[in-house]
Each structure stands twice: as structure tokens, then as C-alpha cells.
Amino acid sequence: MLKSLLILITLLLPALAIADETSQRPNIVLIMADDLGYGDLSCYGSKNCQTPHLDQLAARGMKFTDFHSSGAVCSPTRAGLLTGRYQQRAGIDGVVYADPKKNRHHGLQKNEITLGQCLLDAGYRTAMFGKWHLGYQRQYNPTFRGFQQFVGYVSGNVDYVAHLDQTGVFDWWHGAELNREEQGYSTHLITEHAVKFIRAQHEQPFFVYIAHEAVHYPYQGPDDPAMRKAGGGEIKSAKREDIANAYREMNTEMDKGIGKVVAVLEELDLTDNTLIFFLSDNGANNKGSNGALRGFKGSVWEGGHRVPAIACWPGKISPGTVCDQTTISIDVMPTILELTRVRVPQGHQLDGVSLAGLLTAQKQLLSRKIYWDYRGNSAVRQGPWKLVLNQNRKSPVELFNLSEDLSESKNLAEQQPERVDSLRTAFEVWKKDVTQSATPQPEK
């Protein structure tokens, strides 16, 4: 009998070791706002919006002042975030539109390895709530891209109340099936499902991706009626005229929801073993605030892609830290993989770098170049220097020193021709590389 017991213990030891290793891995809460500008949080200087819960996260963790989305609009940044690759390489370099006359048939292809898939394969429970925008067809549903649970919408935005996309098509999913029964304000529903998922996790580490609709249009506060009609069109009588107030209400509800997520982590004693990372998918449009930055959503000036970002992990990230190092959203996946001790499949190329040492020990990152390219407008950044191409018709070549000119108002291209040529050459090499290796999209 003793011999049998020893054999049993020997067999169980590897499994127990794996279980113990898994239990020590941090939980991950990744939160993305939609169209939230660099100046839209009170901890970033907003006067219109008060965001006490996000302010508290920043006070308890790290606030980034030079963080960027990899894209200047929705779909590309989301593709880059979830693959750790420039979205051009991942095959989604522009918006995936709801209009079937455009590219509604495009999506995140199966050969693209996602953060959700990597963590799921490593024993994490995974879920996504909110905005997908990486493919409308069922085959692109998040439940086939590494997320065990999904509640939300697959388009670029929905009516916050009626859950209709811009073409008037109903777009609210539970898993890979439409759910016409669930009613409510989208921001509240996203929060409720995220909290429910976290509350259900006790034995395994989890990864939850909370992709808020706020503060993207339609501009609807929590007490507003539906604005869109099934089949297309708007209910004009329901349209908000005071957009600034609607914007503030939308931001407030998102902030409250993030507060509820933090509260359930504290209630379940999960705070110290949970990394919360918050960011926006691009800069604000002209209804929001990008602070002193030039440009808006869709541009490769700073206002299009320098965004608020906050990381909080009590005991691991020093409270009240301000990070001024240049970072980008494609860094999030390699960061999380390192912190969770999960490897990307061999031979798969990531373009971002891990920020693990920066977060936990404020280590300096190695010098590198980062790139933006959207609709023929391009930019490349190295250190404080930024080359902008074709964004300005009057001056198609612009060079800025961001350490002295954050508002990109002093074009130094004529004074620094060699630097312009060097950065332009680097961009052309990068562009050729990501184009040649891009994951193809299917023909219509």
C-alpha cells in the first residue's frame, strides 16, 4: 500500500507543480476606451470630465505620458493590441466597415495568433466584453480567437440602447450567437458582464479584455432613448444637441464601471495579484480633447495616436509613477506574456517589446523606431524626433523635436535634411517589410 501511495504521489507531483505555477500567475484586466483623447481624463488635465476611479488607478500605479496607439482609428489598433504586431502585418490596416459595399467581409484571420489564444493555451480563463471590430462574419467571432466568453458587438459602434450598428443591423452577441433579449445601456452591460466573470473566477488565473464603447458616437448618456432605427436611419427627435454633456456622461459611466471592476477585485482579495492596464484605441475627434496635441483621430500627428494609458498592480508597480518613455499599444501583448510566463509560438514574429521591466523596476527601454501609416499619411518616431509624411498638404514633409515642441508647430525638415532622409529610409524599409509579410484578406 505504501508503494502504491508513493507511485500516486510521484504521478501527481508534476500536475501539482503546474497547478501551483498557474495559481501564482497574475490575473490580467485589459481595458480599452474608444476615441478617448489624451486630455479626456481628469488625471490628464480634463476640465470637462471628472474620472475619479481612473485617477485613483493612476495614483496607485503608473501613468504614461508618451504612450501611443499603433493606429489612428479603431480596427487597426485593436488588431495590433491583440496580436502584438503592427496591424499592417496582421492584415488590418484600416477600419473594417459595417457597409457590405466596402470591406465587411474582412477580419482577423485564423493564422494570426492572439493574446487570448496564448493565455487560454497556458491555462487562463479568458473573456472579452464590449467592442470587437475585427470581423463581422461568424468565423471572426472572439470565441474563435481565444476568448471563452464574449458579450458585446462586432461592429465599430452600436446605439447604446437599441444595439443597432450604423447600417441599422442588430449587433449584440452572447458568444457566437445574437442575443435580442438582453436590454440596457451598453456601457453598463459591459461592466456587469465583466464583474460577473471576475466573480466566477476562483481556481484559475483569468484574462478579461474590457473594450468599452465610450466615448465613441452616438452621443448618448445613460438616460437617453434609442437614436437609431432597425434597417437604418436615425430618430431625429432623440438626437442629443448638447454633445459636450453627453460626452461627459458617457465618460463618467465608463469610469464608474471601471470603479466597479476594481471593487470586485478588492472584494475577492485579488487586487495584489492582478495587473490592470488601461488605454485608448486612438485620439479623440473634435468632440473630445487631445490637450495641447495637434490633430485628431485619423491623423498621424500626436493628437491621433498619443493616448492616455495607466498600469496598476499593487506591490509590483510603484504608486504615483509617471513614465515618460515612448511606448506603444503593440507592446502590451509581449508585456503580458512575459509577466504571465507564457511564450508565443516559435517562429511567430511580435513587433512590440515587453514593458515588464519598465513597469516593475522602471528600467529604460532600448532605443527603437516606431511607425504609423494610415491612408497614405505616415510617421516614424525615434527618440524625440518624429517625421510626418503627407499629413499636411502645404508641407508634406514635417520633422519635429517633440521634447521641445509637443504641439508639432515647428517644422525642422529644412534644417535637418540628413535626419529626414534617414527616418524616411527607415520608414520605407519598414513599409516594405510589413506589406510583404501581411496576412491576406479574402476576396469579396
TrEMBL record:
Any GO MF annotation of the entry: metal ion binding
Enzyme class: hydrolase
Protein name, entry field: Arylsulfatase
Species the sequence originates in: Gimesia chilikensis
EC number per UniProt: 3.1.6.1
Keyword Flavoprotein: no
Membrane-spanning ranges: none
Family: Belongs to the sulfatase family.
Ranges of residues in domain Sulfatase N-terminal: 26-340
Signal sequence segment: 1-19
Keywords: Calcium, Hydrolase, Metal-binding, Signal
PANTHER family the record matches: ARYLSULFATASE FAMILY MEMBER, ENDO-4-O-SULFATASE
